[in-house]
User: What shape does this take?
Amino acid sequence: MIYGLVLVAMLVFSFIKGYSFTKVTLHASSKLHDTMFRNILNSPMSFFDTTPTGRMVNRFSKDQDEVDTMLPFNMENFLQFSLMVTYTIVTISAVFPPLLIAITLLGAIFTLILYLFKEMSDNNSNHFLLFNCGTRWLSFWLDFLSASVTLLVALFVVLSSPDTISPAMKGLALSYTIQLTGMLQYVVRLSTELEAKFLSVERLQEYIEGCVSEAPRRVKDALIPEGWPHKGAISFKDYTMRYRANTPIVLDGLQLNIQPREKLGIVGRTGSGKSSLGVALFRLVEPAAGTIFIDGVDTSAIGLEDLRSKLSVIPQDPVLFIGTVRYNLDPFNNYSDEDIWSALDKTFMKHTISSLPEKLQSEVVENGENFSVGERQLMCMARALLRNSKIILLDEATASIDSETDSLIQHTIRDAFQDCTMLTIAHRINTVLESDRILVMDAGRVVECDSPEVLMQRPDSQFAALLTAANTVNT
Assistant: This one.
């Protein structure tokens, strides 16, 4: 009866210990993953510009797998054998106290070896071959020391007087000594493997603690008028921007006023700063100097969510997500089916979507590969139409669409976005000829800003030169 109760108690204790260990390690692993994921999502664009994608993927795959699987396994073995060593030493001390001298000496030698291998691991942890060589070196010397200590203890037991210690106790001490040397060897090996596995935790901590976060999503005391922005007026006041510290300036003291509901075409040669205007408007990079006002509100004084939720962008590379057509157009279910069909009709996608078997509930594969590039771009335009933002940025949005469809879309965009301020970064000069004004950029500065008719009549106009060059290439 007593043995049964003891057995049940041991089983219950083992279950509680295993459950607690699993719960703690899973919680720690999940917290590391979630914290790193959240910090990376909140990182500025400069982090993604300087960090290879493969390195980030490696953190979430190999390193996270080490933390999830191998690290708990090594830690459990290390703790288990450390406790066994502790209990063995206590037993030996109670049975044969003089043996503590040999154990102390043995512990000092093992500590020295552990320190030496730790130095080797720190210096060579990134070189797998050297890591294996160090392991073989450690294994040989641990075996040698274990055999030496066993020999010394055996001689000590044999040569000691039988009157002081009974032969049974000598045999018990010798058997525990043989077990102790093997377990000490295994503990040292496990400790080095455990430390090696913790390199993955260090890499995760590098992203958790080293990532610089973007500006806050919301600013508590920001003064934002209700329904802002009402008109869509944009003012750049002595705005200067560089993508990262110690890099060249891409927008240099920009002074520009964009009127409400104005259609502004932005042109310039490669590297002139056209796309940087969109980066500045969405605060993907913080300004080095100056600021941007939208309807009189300083955009650098409000939260990023408050700013970006009021702007819409139709990017150069269309972005679609895995899900349905409706989810891609209205992920938060803010609009009715009638509104969605109306937006699709204005972007010439109504016939394409209505011909699908499940219409708005039709599946969109990864990156929208089951649609052509032009159709993906049109769906992005429909998405912008639905949001009905006061400010629309078209970043070379019609670069992947044929000229005939582009011509129709230009007129449709003017009708659909007639109450919006629209900034069009031109890939083809002809796409912005119907704009109210043309902004010509060069080296991050405003070179010209006037109506297309006025700029084309100037003999020294850079816009006229760009238009002539484009027409020459087309012919």
Notes: The radius of gyration is 35 Å.
